[in-house]
Amino acid sequence: MAGLIGCLVGRAATRLVTVVMDRTGADCGWYGLCHTVLTWFLSSTGMGAEEAKDAVDTAIGGRFKSWTVPSRTLIDAVGEDLASDLTGVEPYLER
């Protein structure tokens, strides 16, 4: 069950990052809004605000920059890292 939840959290996080990036054009400080949106998302699941903020801090880890569109790989990695940190289940990687 944790694997399914992790998959859903990872997909949702990836989608939310993509929407924020698209809407802001990755302008100055877009990643701050992204952080806020991901924190709100996790809080909406019943997670405490501080725990959600810490989880997002860990997942993003300074990897997003102003005026820079992140690669698809980086966006996916943030979603996967967030999911695995919350569930303790590593994502399935096709080989």
Mean pLDDT: 89
**What's the β-strand tally?**
0
End-to-end separation? 23 Å
Percentage of residues in helical conformation: 55-70%
Whole-angstrom Rg: 13 Å
Report on the biggest sheet. none
Order of helices and strands: HHHH
- Indicate the low-confidence ranges by residue numbers: none
Tally of alpha and pi helices: 4
* Oligomeric grouping of the chains: single chain
Strand content: under 5%
| Structural class by SSE content | mainly alpha
Shape: globular
What does this structure look like?
This protein has helices at residues 2-24, 30-44, 49-60, 72-87. The longest helix has 23 residues, at 2-24. It contains four helices and no strands. The model has no long low-confidence stretch (mean pLDDT 89). The protein starts with a helix and ends in an 8-residue tail after the last helix. It is mainly alpha-helical. Helix 1 (2-24) packs antiparallel against helix 4 (72-87).
